Amino acid sequence: MTAPFSWIRPEPWGIHIVPADIWVDPSRAVPRALVTHGHADHARGGHGTTIATPATLAIMELRYNTREGAVAAAYGESVALGGGVSATFIPAGHVLGSSQILLEHAGERVIITGDYKRAPDPTCAPFAVTPCDIFITEATFGLPVFTHPPIGEEIGKLLTARDENPDACILVGAYALGKAQRVIAELRAAGHSDTIWLHGAMEAMCRLYEEHGVALGDLRLVSDAPSKDAMRGAIVIAPPSALNDRWSRRLPDPVTAMASGWMRVRARARQRGVELPLIISDHADWNELTQTIARVNPQETWITHGREEALLRWCELSQRRARALALVGYEDEDD
Amino acid sequence: MEEFAALLDALVYTTSRNRKLALIAAYLRSQPDPDRGWALAALTDGLDFPAVKSSTIRNLMMERVDPLLWALSRDFVGDTAETASLLWPEPADAAPQGDLSVAEVVERLSALTRTTAPKELPGLLDRMDANGRYALIKLATGGMRVGVSARLAKTAFAQAFDVAVEEVEEYWHALAPPYAELFAWAANGAPPPDLAGVPRFRPFMLAHPLEDGEVDLKDYAAEWKWDGIRVQLVRAGGETRVYSRSGDDISASFPELLTVLPMDAVLDGELLVRGTAQGGEAGGAASFNALQQRLGRKTVSGKMLKEAPAFVRLYDVLLLDGTDWRDHPWKSRRATLEALMPRLPASHFDLSALVEAEDFAALAAIRDTARDEAIEGLMLKHRDSPYVAGRKVALWYKWKRDPLLIDCVVMYAQRGSGKRSSFHSDFTFGCWDGDPDSGAELLPVGKAYTGFTDAELKQLDKFVRQNTLNRFGPVREVKRELVFEVAFDSVHTSKRHKSGLAMRFPRIHRIRWDKPAHEADRIEALRALIKD
After folding, report:
1. CB A101 within 8 A of CB A17
2. CATH number assigned to the domain comprising residue A268
3. Whether residue A161 sits in one domain with residue A204
4. HSE on the CB side for B246, CA within 13 Å?
5. Could you tell me the residue range of the domain that residue A158 belongs to?
């Protein structure tokens, strides 16, 4: 008789499902992979076969040119992986196409969350709580200091800053996949219908979101602006790496903002020279992490990446079995 | 408190000096008395609530949050006040009680004792949101760290009410928070505060470093730059006070100087303790090490007064017998000072001698001998310079001797605070206690956290993360692989360190990515440089 859950093995470069010889979010190229979502620390090119949601596959094709070996799995559809293992993709609420993956083998149920959040997001399907025996969770913001305020408050701050600086522009640093589109969609929901200016690196992903039914309104490229003056009083969105880059010199006196969960901590904002911190994250905050574990109520919780020590401690205090997995290469400095 | 909390928050995220000035000035103009005065005192660390320490806050948190979760959070955030403001459990049934004024908060904090503080603080914290709690804890424990120096605050005050900053500075140090007379004068047109008979601080004149240039000794006089602390001795209305360079009143640490000035005067000099390390028998001053024992004390024992008696080596005279000498040229002030010396007790005063030299090259040769005497270097003062506040180009120069250099191996790295809270930026380094190829060990000799660029800081942080051997809280022990060329001003014997020595002003001069660790210096090389 084999030991319970011996069929699933965390290795430093990903989670291995032994009987099917397939990996989840591996950080190196493998013959067969399941991918939770399109961010670079989870998705990469070079696998023989990649099984993911259609939106994740579209994102991977755009970013890593991975057309070959792509196998689409819709939300809720069960895929037989071989070796008596099946996989089901369940919405994770992180970015477009993001999934938790439910793995079932010999009556045992394991969920790998990938990255997730519980707060509402107009650009992707919401996280679905699903019962399981082992819950393998992320912990990017796994410290009790991290509580993300309702996004409406943060969008309000952004619009106030824009109103107060009619001669400048507000330059918002936001992850090109997910965060940027969410910020734009929330601005539209708050009634902001002006042109939003984009860094070139944002364009293709915004178009992909629109093709997947996420309306983003009037978007234009900064490189197409007729003059600096055209962008005065406007909101400009760029990847975080461009904030203090020479690229931003073409903008009219930008006020530097950043949309990230790390903005909760003053020192983090100061390090990046951020003048307007916006606490907007696509990851679960401390309360979402702990409440999700409590709701899912698994026999055991495994913690993949982030501030795992604190979440382990919480599990211990609430008398839940838990362990930290030492996976490499998952860290999200810009979220 | 809401406006004050908003001001603090805005200052945190503003790097531009002009923006900071505008923010503070707008706050000072818009807020009522005495709130704005208390806020100004808080920004410049002019408030002290002895009943509330950082440990008071930590203890409050320990009763409410798991100690390990607290420690992990504090370690990540890098600031106790901020961590507590984020982790404070907000009461579920928070009935709005209205905003407290800064003055009300100050009043309540002042009334606290060690016993009542843990009982009263929670009620205050419960009334605020995270930003308010941050402001409250910073106000109570001091150390705002929002990049506002006393000088910047004074400039903002002057800007807010369109008055001269030099005037603000003179009145400021003679008044106590909330500076009612200062606001009455600047904001409400009252006559200036009447400070006759108050021994008040006058802004110091400072020097620029002399980089590569030369000066003509016909125009400039040279003096030793003594290695003590620059002080201003002020007597007025029969009372004498000692001020440090920043305008802090340090009289309590040096009681022997408070009864020896026989006339009303304002004098500028170097505070030193008796010894022979600086200037030999004739110089009569101990090393900075000896002076350090006397700093920061609220009371001084008789033993200490006897073993390390302080005196002032005079550089300049600002006021004497009712005459303000500051507009007069340096040479007149010097003559006045020399004429004054016989009226001062030699037990507590001497005159900083002029260093005579044929020409600049000869002076350079004299300066190079200064290391033997544990002196920092030379001061060059224009003979016609008036005594003006701050650093004015071409009037005074400091001409420090070149630093000493030694190659050390990085042993430990610690995460910084504040802006550097996620970077390993504080390094402990050591020298070999013998031949490293025959199994010698490294002995720690110093610690430094300056001397590298932001780009180098990132590289160093990466090195630390990739070469960690052990972790002790925020400290990491690293592989003995990286060599720093460390610059320092002098080295002294020390009982506090295992290596038996302590460097003064160590800073990282160069990062020697190329140099193998076993080629770093041995401890004997450092010992040979001790001049105690």
Report:
1. no
2. 3.40.50.12650
3. yes
4. 10
5. 151-278
Nearest Cα of chain B lies from the Cα of A272 at a distance, in angstroms, of: 9
User: Which parts of chain B sit beneath pLDDT 70?
Assistant: 94-95, 279-283, 370-374, 417-422, 473-474, 532
Q: Which of A140, A141, A143 is the mutation pick for testing B, counting most B CBs within 10 A?
A: A143
Give me the CATH number covering residue A137.
3.60.15.10
Beta bridge partners of B320: B265, B323
Cα distance between residue B385 and residue B379, in whole Å = 13
| Mean pLDDT rounded to a whole number for chain A | 94
- Verify that A24 and A135 share a domain, yes or no: yes
Residues in B touching A270 (Cβ below 8 Å): 12-13, 15, 418-419
Residue A151 C-alpha, separation from nearest chain B C-alpha, in angstroms: 17
Q: Which residues contact residue B326 at a Cβ distance below 8 angstroms, ignoring those fewer than 6 apart?
A: B202, B318, B319, B386, B387, B388
Tokens of B498: 């295992």
Task: Based on the residue annotation, tell me whether B462 is a catalytic residue of this protein.
Answer: no
pTM: 0.75
Element (H, E) at B452: none
Q: Would A333 be classed as within a structural domain?
A: no
Domains of chain B plus CATH, in order, are 2-141 (1.10.3260.10), 205-400 (3.30.470.30), 404-527 (2.40.50.140)
What is the C-alpha to C-alpha distance for residues B94 and B129, in angstroms, rounded to an integer? Answer: 11
Which residue blocks in B78-225 are alpha helix, DSSP H? 80-87, 102-110, 117-126, 130-141, 150-161, 165-172, 180-188
Per-residue pLDDT of A286-332, as tens digits, reads 999 999 999 999 999 999 877 889 999 999 999 999 998 866 556 55
Q: Is residue A3 part of a domain?
A: no
Distance from CA of B19 to the nearest CA of A (A): 11
| ω into B34 cis (within 30 of 0) | yes
- Which structure tokens are listed for B338? 């020399």
The CA dihedral of B104, B110, B111, B117, to the nearest 10 degrees, is 100
Question: Do A165 and A192 fall within a single domain?
Answer: yes
d(CA A37, CA B452): 39
Residues A259 and A298 both lie in one domain = no
C-alpha to C-alpha distance for B474 and A147, rounded to whole angstroms = 23
Using a CB-CB distance cutoff of 8 angstroms, which residues of chain A are in contact with residue B68? 309-310, 313
Residue A2 binned pLDDT confidence (cut-offs 50, 70, 90): low
- Indicate yes or no: CB of B79 within 8 angstroms of CB of A267: yes
- Whether residue A313 is contained in a domain is answered as yes
Contact B82 A274 (CB under 8 A): no
Cβ contact (<8 Å) for B421 and A265? yes
Q: Which residues of B200-239 are buried (b: 16+ CB within 10 A; e: fewer)?
A: bbbbbbebeebeeeebebeebbbbbbbbbbbbbbbbbeee
User: Do A273 and A305 share a structural domain?
Assistant: no
What is the pLDDT, as a whole number, of residue A249? 77
**What pLDDT is recorded for position A329?**
56
Q: Is residue A302 part of a domain?
A: yes
What is the ipTM metric for this complex? 0.94
- Condensed to tens digits (0 to 9), the pLDDT of residues A123-156 reads 999 999 999 999 999 999 999 999 999 999 999 9
Tens digit of each residue's pLDDT (9 = 90 or more) over B346-389: 999 999 999 999 999 999 888 877 655 557 789 999 999 999 98
Q: Residue B340 carries which DSSP code?
A: H
